[in-house]
Design brief:
- The complex is a heterodimer of chains A (301) and B (763).
- With 301 residues, chain A is an alpha+beta fold.
- Chain A is built from 12 helices and 13 strands.
- Chain A is globular and about 75 Å long.
- In chain B, α9 (355-373) runs parallel beside α16 (720-732).
- Chain B starts with 16 loop residues before the first helix and ends in an 11-residue tail after the last helix.
- The chains are: A alpha+beta (301), B alpha+beta (763).
- At the A-B interface, β1, α11 and α12 of A face β2, α2, α3, β6 and α17 of B.
- Chain A: It holds the Pfam family FAD_binding_5.
- Chain A: Residues 15-190 form the FAD-binding PCMH-type domain.
- Chain A: It comes from Halobacillus campisalis.
């Protein structure tokens, strides 16, 4: 015998739930204070596309939403020079559409532009922010940012922290996690040949969560050696991860055909996806391995 | 019958098009009334349970709540169902699926209504869930209805299959599984129900059959049919999904209880949970050929999962049985179908009506046999194809037709051209394949079923010729069809015309807008009304002008005579005719039935359409993903009434079935939907659809055919899945048995063939 919920015999007249309160702080310190005040009852919001999706899926809206939309410094692009290296800083509130239109991203970090192109639909990209996609923890841009060695700059109430993307994503799991302020992209290394790709596989062509997402940024020197390599994979509910073992395997190698079989096996071992009612983990592994190895095969041909 | 061609003239832009694409059009779910309340339906928390108590007091006390109804508040029959009313409007003691309604609330806002629903406490005793149709009839399985879990059995026997299989040189036996497809209309179920001051009720809710809704609501509300007015068009899509009642009873009960207009518009999730789906079926076919390549034995077993309630389950099963031999002549056939109750949602009417499921299996058999015999699959089909005067698939006489041969030949020619096209693959990890399939599909409801149609023409006081039909606009383009047929038959122009549909207070009963019958029935109605209506106008014209009736013709703006030099001289306008006439409005109406076979064979159809599909796919060898790059169809359905509408139906049906083949399945686990919204239940996007699709309309009918244009609402959706399945087999050698096609299975098959060198390392 099951009661759908406890009989409401409290005697008090029923009332409507208190509607969500939306806070619009004007700087990060204020945002931080509001969050500290309401703890787990509060949630940050920017474009709101993910929160809306989760709401449709049955997650109740938080009692307090802290909208960061009035904090202007969190939006837009800055060019920085760091020890002679060119860097692009992207404000966390910059929309995915604006990132996609940015000429520098297109020229220097094309796989990021490619990753953004695969996020949801144009209407969603017009509202969704790059910071929101990172804080989603399984966003499509994360593997691309990982292999581009992007830096997440966040605010912990007193100071600004700088972390790699993977570390920042872990920080989000904690209570009172720092607020993502910006993402910095370092100039990617160049050599004789660049090996760079981003692939997303979904159950449909567009507007679809990924089954498998892989990203790679690397370069090959004049003698055909893999001089630099960053490889990451994500997809489904699994947080994207760098494939360090695979990277080590190809690093400093002139790849030959026999290596491809070994690399294939290593991807199968290192990439740990999850199953869902539509797709098994085994399928995801095979696809990730196929996609990655087919790209490396091009180096041999 | 005059020869009609898909000419420029018959390429009408639909009159409702601009308002739809600009978003200006008001659907019934957009309506607002003063003092309107919002209704919400509380649905079951379990797929199968006994209800022990329903406690509504808390909800009733919530400020802003104006009415709460449960089973106790149903004044008439607490059940609905087009044929057998076995679905409770509001459940009293048992719930049989997650969409079963337990209570409904009307409140000042949607939010209050929603919260009030959460305050209704229902005490359940959960029962074991019947979720496997294969076990539904087993002893020990919980019985969902007083008569058990069997909804319906249907069969067709001809010759002696067991004996014939002994004579076969090749036999293919295969089991096919097809999914639970959702209609996914853009406009979910909804509308406004208004209690009028005179005690009548106006129901502004989209439906495919206004008069049937009126009948069913009358039975539920214990209110005379004449006191219920159904306004039912336009709809943002239906595809069979809105023929049965959906939210109307709840809106009506709440409107009567509160005395105020009540709007209900289901969210997508509510629609998924409560709405009908296409019947999932498991179909086993054993098909054998003799040495001459002719099929001589065909054994078919169909198991349909009808879910919790009947609705049109029996008719759909019978349709599947009838179409299980398709356009082929087979001397020995044994087809047995069974449709069973489970706690898996409710399956019902859906474009194709059981034909799509069984055609996937049948055409799969044809391709497998052709492959086994090593003959061209279309040539194999041609060898077994029905001839012009052959009797219908279940032994009934049908309107003579060459459609099967015509579409087969057309798609064969098209395939030749496709094969010759340059096919250089830019990507070494992609391979292509072409597949074809054909089908025949019955229109109308079939022998032994009430299938009335009708229409009315009237010269109104304002001089407009009113054409009134009980058909509904569900996006299919019925308005363009009516405009074309009426203006052509009467010679008048569109501006002389006023088309009225979708309101039981204004239109005659025309039967349901279903079974590809709309276009056909409008044409038949005009054949019957055209002459008497023209005569009526002309006689009136003669009386008013003195011009002899035999010289007068109906034309644009009014009546005219043709002078000896061919010049058309206007005599009197329709407006003048209406205004100068002292009598009542000039009206002609007609009632008739959809043409049926003269043979008393239950459910047998008489008018058939034919379709042939060519699909080309590109299979990604790295992911197993299938992309359809060509989806072209040849259709034989008589003269085209409106080419744009025709093409839209075929392309739209094609894309809907592309989704059925590759993406769509309302997945359930233990009676609960795993796909509760469009983020998990996937329909094709524009990126999944071929850039262009060709539609070849074969318009010729037999010389003595007097039945005119057939409807094409379904035919474009029927044979798509098997064509895509065959194309996949051509590309990678994998025979698809289950829909939607699993990329995982395709990839596993590709991997087995070790097309990529690196997987060798795995061996």
């Amino acid at each position: 015998m099951v009661n759908e919920h406890e009989p409401l015999m409290s005697g008090k007249p029923p009332t409507l739930p208190v509607p969500t309160k939306v806070w619009r702080p004007s700087d990060l310190s204020e945002a931080w204070e509001v969050k500290r005040q309401y703890g787990t009852e509060a949630r940050y919001i920017t474009g709101g596309t993910l929160i809306q999706l989760q709401r449709e899926q049955g997650t109740p809206l938080a009692k307090h939403l802290i909208s960061l939309d009035k904090i202007n410094v969190l939006e837009g692009f800055d060019h920085l020079e760091d020890e002679g290296q060119f860097k692009l800083r992207i404000g966390a509130l910059t929309t995915l559409s604006d990132c996609h239109r940015n000429v520098f991203i297109e020229e220097y970090w094309p796989i990021l532009a490619e990753a953004i192109r695969h996020v949801a639909s144009p209407a969603v990209r017009n509202r969704a922010t790059i910071g929101g996609n990172v804080c989603y923890q399984v966003g499509d841009v994360i593997p691309a940012l990982m292999v581009l060695e992007a830096e997440a700059v966040s605010f912990d109430g007193t100071t600004y922290l700088s972390n790699d993307i993977a570390t920042y994503i872990q920080l989000i799991n904690g209570e009172d996690h720092p607020i993502l302020a910006s993402i910095s992209l370092p100039e990617p290394p160049v050599s004789a040949q660049v090996l760079s790709f981003f692939k997303k596989v979904g159950r449909r062509e567009a507007f679809i969560p990924s089954i498998v997402t892989v990203a790679c940024q690397g370069c090959i020197n004049e003698s055909g050696e893999v001089e630099y390599i960053r490889l990451a994979a994500g997809g489904g509910t699994a947080s994207p991860k760098r494939l360090y073992e695979c990277e080590r395997f190809v690093q400093n190698k002139v790849l030959i055909e026999e290596d491809l079989g070994r690399l294939y096996e290593m991807v199968l071992q290192e990439y740990v996806p999850a199953s869902d009612p539509f797709t098994t983990a085994d399928y995801r592994k095979t696809v990730a391995a196929n996609v990655i190895v087919s790209e490396f095969e091009k180096l041999i041909q | 019958m005059q020869q009609m061609k898909a000419s420029e003239k018959r390429n009408r832009k639909r009159p409702d098009g601009p308002d739809k694409v600009t978003g200006r059009l008001n659907y019934l779910t957009d309506l607002h009334f003063p003092n309107m309340l919002y209704g919400k339906i509380k649905r079951s928390a379990y797929p199968h349970a006994r209800i022990l108590s329903i406690y509504t007091e808390e909800a009733e006390q919530l400020p802003g709540v104006r009415a709460v109804v449960t089973f106790k508040d149903v004044p008439g029959l607490n059940a609905f169902g087009i044929v057998t009313p076995d679905q409770p409007v509001l459940c009293e003691d048992t719930v049989r699926y997650v969409g079963d309604a337990v209570a409904a609330v009307a409140a000042d806002t949607k939010e209050i209504a929603e919260h009030a629903c959460s305050l209704i406490a229902v005490e359940y005793d959960p029962l074991p869930v019947v979720d496997d149709p294969a076990k539904a009839l087993d002893a020990g399985t919980p019985q969902l209805h007083p008569d058990g879990n069997l909804l319906h059995k249907a069969h067709f026997y001809k010759g002696d299959v067991d004996d014939a299989f002994y004579k076969c040189t090749e036999i293919i036996e295969e089991t096919y599984q097809v999914p639970r497809q959702m209609h996914t209309y853009m406009e979910t179920e909804g509308g406004v129900i208004v209690p009028e001051p005179d005690g009548t009720l106006t129901v502004y809710v989209g439906t495919q059959h206004g008069y049937k809704d009126r009948f069913q609501l009358s039975r539920i509300l214990n209110l005379q049919e004449e006191k219920i007015r159904i306004v039912s068009s336009p709809m943002g899509g239906s595809f069979g999904g809105k023929d049965e009642l959906n939210i109307q009873p709840y809106g009506a009960l709440l409107a009567l209880a509160s005395g105020r207009p009540v709007k209900i518009h289901q969210t997508r999730q509510e629609s998924v949970i409560s709405g009908l789906k296409r019947h999932p079926m498991r179909i086993t076919m054993k098909t054998g050929v003799a040495a001459d390549g002719k099929i001589i034995a065909h054994r078919v077993d169909i198991l349909a999962d009808t879910g919790a309630y009947s609705t049109l389950g029996p008719a759909i099963l019978e349709f599947a049985v009838e179409h299980s031999t398709g356009p082929y002549v087979i001397p020995n056939v044994k087809t047995e179908g069974v449709s069973v109750f489970t706690n898996n949602g409710v399956a019902g009417e859906f474009r194709g009506f059981g034909g799509n499921q069984v055609t996937f299996a049948l055409e799969g058999q044809m391709d497998r046999l052709a492959d086994r015999l090593d003959v061209d699959p279309l040539e194999f089909r041609r060898l077994n194809l029905r001839k012009r005067d052959e009797i219908g698939p279940i032994g009934q006489r049908i309107a003579p037709t060459d459609g099967a041969y015509q579409v087969l030949q057309s798609i064969k020619d098209h395939r030749q051209l496709k094969i010759k096209e340059e096919n250089e693959m830019p990507d070494k990890w992609k391979v292509r394949g072409i597949g074809t399939a054909i089908t025949m599909h019955g229109g109308g409801l079939g022998y032994g079923r009430l299938d009335p149609a009708g229409g009315r023409l009237c010269l109104k006081e304002n001089g407009k010729i009113e054409a009134a039909f009980g058909f509904e606009e569900a996006g299919q383009g019925i308005l363009g069809v009516i405009e074309t047929i009426v203006t052509e038959e009467l010679g008048c122009s569109v501006s002389d015309l006023s088309v009225v549909i979708g309101d039981t207070s204004l239109v005659p009963s025309s039967g349901s807008t279903t079974a590809s019958r709309g276009t056909s029935m409008v044409w038949h109605a005009l054949q019957k009304m055209n002459k008497p209506f023209r005569k009526l106008l002309i006689e009136k014209g003669e009386a008013l002008t003195g011009v002899e009736a035999h010289r007068l013709q109906t034309g644009k703006i009014g009546l005219f005579v043709t002078a000896d030099d061919g010049e058309e001289i206007p005599i009197i306008t329709y407006e003048e005719l209406a205004q100068q006439s002292t009598e009542e409005e000039m009206t002609i109406s007609t009632n008739f039935d959809f043409p049926t076979t003269p043979d008393p064979i239950d459910s047998g159809h008489f008018l058939y359409t034919f379709g042939a599909v060519l699909a080309q796919v590109e299979v990604d060898l790295l992911t197993g993903k299938v992309k359809v790059i060509d989806l072209d169809q040849a259709i034989a359905a008589g003269p085209v009434v409106n080419y744009l509408g025709y093409k839209g139906q075929i392309e739209g049906g094609g894309v809907m079935s592309l989704g059925y083949t590759l993406l769509e399945d309302a997945l359930m686990s233990e009676g609960e939907y795993m796909t509760q919204n469009l983020d998990a239940y996937l329909i094709p996007g524009i990126g999944d659809v071929p850039f262009t699709m060709k539609v070849e309309a074969i318009e010729t009918l037999q010389e003595d055919d007097s039945y005119g244009p057939r409807g094409v609402g379904e035919i474009g959706s029927v044979a798509v899945a098997p064509a895509i399945a065959k194309a996949i087999q051509e590309a990678v050698g994998y025979w698809v048995r289950s829909l939607p096609v699993s990329s995982e299975e395709v990839l596993a098959e590709v991997s087995k063939r070790r097309v990529n060198p690196w997987t060798k390392a795995m061996q």
